[in-house]
Amino acid sequence: MRTLEQVWPLFGLRIAAGPLQMRAVRDADVPLLVELAEGGIHDPDAMPFSSPWSTAPVVELGPNMARFYWHTRAEFTPTRWDLELVVLWQDQIVGCQGFTTQNYLTTRTGETGSWLGREFQRQGIGTAMRQTICAFLFDHLSAEEVTSAAFVDNPPSLAVSRKTGYRPNGQTRERRRDGELAISQKLSLRPGDLVRFPHPLVVEGAAEVPAGRARRLTQLPPVRRTAARCCDRLVHCGLLRTGCAPRRARGWSGSRSGDEDAERVAGGVGIDAQRLLGILGAVS
Ligand SMILES: CC(C)(COP(=O)(O)OP(=O)(O)OC[C@H]1O[C@@H](n2cnc3c(N)ncnc32)[C@H](O)[C@@H]1OP(=O)(O)O)[C@@H](O)C(=O)NCCC(=O)NCCS
Q: Which of 167, 199, 231 is the endpoint of a domain?
């Protein structure tokens, strides 16, 4: 019988570093996350989120949060990712780390967002989870940029960004709550600026991109590059299962190095042809 991880490979993704673990939110995590949120995430007067979900009445908070996590799963497609990871610190659930992006295979950028239950704040956990998700994105998904944003009246979030190496990238004027203007500080992080959490990154469910692979991909013609990258990233995301190697994938590149790339990406790992072509159709 197939496992849920085989059907939905994101459930197989596990990211760990020292006392920190992150994995895709499962249904069993939702009640604990709701309890954390009910316990408070911020001062009642403050609002760190663009959508004020955290101040919903208790009777609505649980169903809203469950609906949100199910929605992110249901809407996760090759072109639109909304990855919500439950965060554990010393095996205890403490909050959530998100990563959202569109057309990632082309843009290689996306935005992080996070929250912690109040009792777990100001202990360095927020910095640890951001540094770790960014290391995962750069090392395993070949991100070229990671963005974030925080309202200017949210010093802890801005401090976490600064401590992770993000640079300011302009401000926007946004509506936060009814009739309330808030200034949002945009932030951008490049791979060379990342400040790493001082524990080794351990990832299951997504293989590390071999050094030099991204460089070789940039030498391929654009169409073939897209195909090879698409295949590569989806394999690394665990969105393609191993199995048979499609002929078409082997023939993507005309160049010798490209053939080797495609062979290693598709032939070496093995990809279900039908899913591959379906996903390629969705991204091209
Ligand atoms: C943002 C958040 C995830 C950060 O997590 P955290 O574990 O509290 O952060 P850390 O302990 O790693 O670091 C917080 C930093 O902010 C600093 N900080 C906290 N309050 C501050 C304040 N009022 N003014 C200035 N700096 C402040 C801390 O001093 C610390 O920096 P330091 O280690 O250099 O001293 C957490 O505070 C949170 O969940 N906040 C509510 C939700 C939220 O704002 N999410 C982000 C939306 S953009």
A: 199
